[in-house]
Write a structure and sequence with these properties.
Layout: H1 2-11, H2 13-24, H3 36-52, E1 55-60, E2 69-74, E3 83-89, E4 109-111, E5 114-116, H4 124-141, E6 147-153, H5 162-169, E7 178-181, E8 185-186, E9 193-198, E10 200-209, E11 215-216, H6 227-236, H7 259-265, H8 272-279, H9 292-297, E12 303-309, E13 319-320, E14 323-332, H10 338-352, E15 358-367, E16 370-371, H11 377-390, E17 395-399, H12 404-413, E18 417-420, E19 423-424, E20 435-437, H13 438-455
Parallel strand pairs: 3-6, 3-7, 7-18, 8-19, 9-17
Antiparallel strand pairs: 1-2, 2-6, 4-5, 5-20, 9-16, 9-18, 10-14, 10-15, 11-13, 12-14
Bound molecules: zinc ion.
């Protein structure tokens, strides 16, 4: 069954490319209100495409007035087989600046083995790889090795809040044994990677106040504390000079990396030299006992994201400011509780503040980190499918960033999430001349075909 599907996919490359090109031609830019009708049209196009392939599909409207999500499933449930839920997003980033494109952003154009267009990689091309895997099975043998559902949202590029609500309110419909998310990259065309962790985040702002008004620095300076100085002194005591965070209890819940996990992470091709060349930084900075890969994905951070106080205009103004502010965020790793971390940082800063300073805190949302069991049968199935397709065993990586919807899938549906990207890092996503290698499209389809078979041990 798998071999028939693989053969079918190879024989229908042209046709699959045409379908993707038609889908890409709809400028479904979620950030621009003038494209609202196009966003809708892209959702409807995908729904109709699923129906034409023999799936049941409909739009799930947003309960908060956002963009609809496309749901699809194969009509013939197989109760004894596992179910995979495939995630994607049909909205795209704006194409600006238009004059830097070498071909029109919404006309799919093939040059040198790449398909150029907005959405080619992020994310239409990637989830169409899965759609075409289903098509290959259904057209070649009339059935699927396991149950398949799709949920394709229209708000990913605007940090949408609809999908988390839908996951919660449709958890029976979306029930599955594994969620497949392809919204990332391969390390190279012959080197797949599987992300098994995402960092979490807490973000807050602090205001330090010393007096009820700005003051003349000649009259009051020397008698009233300067909140800018006080805040600087507090912030300076949050970290030591090699980057270790000094907040009491901050590392208490951090997961300790096992030796085999450190060995696996050492395979990730990210080095100090990469970071220096990408950023122009003079030297890397961070906990010396951890590698750059470990610091990126397995260690938490505390960073000042903004800092302001007093007079910052031209010339001089001898003011003693009344208040000083900072925006601070912490990237969190598995087992750290965002609310607990915020409380620890807040209490630590309060202890460092003298009686002449009042600190006030405001939080802006939080998300816990995600960790997926590398040894779960679902991840192992994905690893076998990836190795058979790309020719090398996948590298397991921990992402430094956060994908909130992955947390929601994992939390509400309570199943592993496979993060297997099909694009390449130099595909210019969110930038002019976005592209998706034709080989990536084809291999993505093959990897998806193999994954479905591996899930039921039929490869
Ligand atoms: Zn994107």
């Amino acid at each position: 069954m798998q071999d028939l599907a693989l053969t079918y996919a190879r024989e229908h490359r042209e046709h699959y490319l045409n379908d993707l090109s038609e889908y890409i031609a709809i400028p479904s830019i979620s950030a621009m209100p003038e494209h609202a009708a196009d966003v809708r049209r892209a959702g409807e196009w995908l729904r109709d495409h699923f129906i034409a392939l023999g799936l049941q599909s409909w739009l799930i409207e947003s309960p908060i007035g956002g963009n609809a999500s496309v749901y699809a499933e194969w009509k013939h449930p197989q109760p004894d087989k596992p179910t995979v839920l495939i995630y994607g997003h049909y909205d795209v980033q704006p194409a600006d600046p238009l004059d830097l494109w070498h071909s029109p952003p919404f006309t799919a154009t093939v040059r040198d083995g790449y398909l150029y267009a907005r959405g080619a990689d992020d994310n239409k091309g990637q989830h169409m790889s899965h759609v075409k895997a289903i098509e290959s099975y259904l057209k070649s043998s009339g059935s699927l090795p396991c149950n398949v559902k799709f949920i394709v949202e229209g708000e990913e590029e605007i940090g949408g809040s609809t999908l988390p609500l839908l996951i919660e309110s449709h958890k029976e419909l979306l029930a599955c044994d594994v969620v497949m998310v392809s919204d990332g990259g391969l390390l190279a065309l012959d080197q797949p990677s599987l992300e098994y962790g995402l960092r979490g985040l807490v973000y807050f702002e602090v205001e330090a106040r010393a007096a009820n008004r700005d003051m003349h620095s000649g009259i009051y300076g020397g008698n009233v504390q300067n909140p800018a100085m006080a805040l600087a002194q507090i912030l300076a005591q949050l970290k030591d000079n090699v980057g270790r965070i000094l907040v009491d209890g901050f590392y208490d819940d951090v997961r300790v990396l096992a030796a085999d996990e450190r060995a696996e992470l050492a395979r990730v091709p990210l080095t100090e030299a990469t970071i220096l060349s990408e950023t122009g930084a003079l030297k890397t900075f961070g906990e010396p006992e951890f590698s750059v890969v470990e610091r990126m994905g397995a260690r938490p951070t505390l960073e000042i994201n903004g800092l302001w106080s007093g007079y910052t205009g031209a010339g001089q103004k001898t003011v003693l400011p009344a208040i000083a502010n900072a925006k601070i965020s912490c990237r969190l790793v598995p087992n750290q509780d965002p609310a607990k971390i915020f409380a620890q940082v807040r209490d630590h800063m309060q202890r460092l503040a003298g009686p002449e300073i009042t600190l006030r805190f405001q939080t802006f949302g939080e998300a816990a980190a995600t960790l997926i069991d590398r040894n779960s049968p679902q991840l192992r199935a994905a690893a076998r499918a990836a190795e058979a397709t790309y020719g090398n065993r996948p590298v397991y990586t921990l992402s430094g960033g956060s994908i909130p919807v992955v947390n929601e899938f994992k939390r509400v549906l309570n199943q592993p999430v496979v993060l297997l990207g099909f694009g390449l890092n130099n595909d210019n996503i969110h930038a002019p001349n976005e592209r998706y290698a034709l080989a990536c499209y084809e291999k993505g389809t093959e990897a998806s075909i193999r994954f479905l078979a591996e899930l039921v041990g039929e490869a």
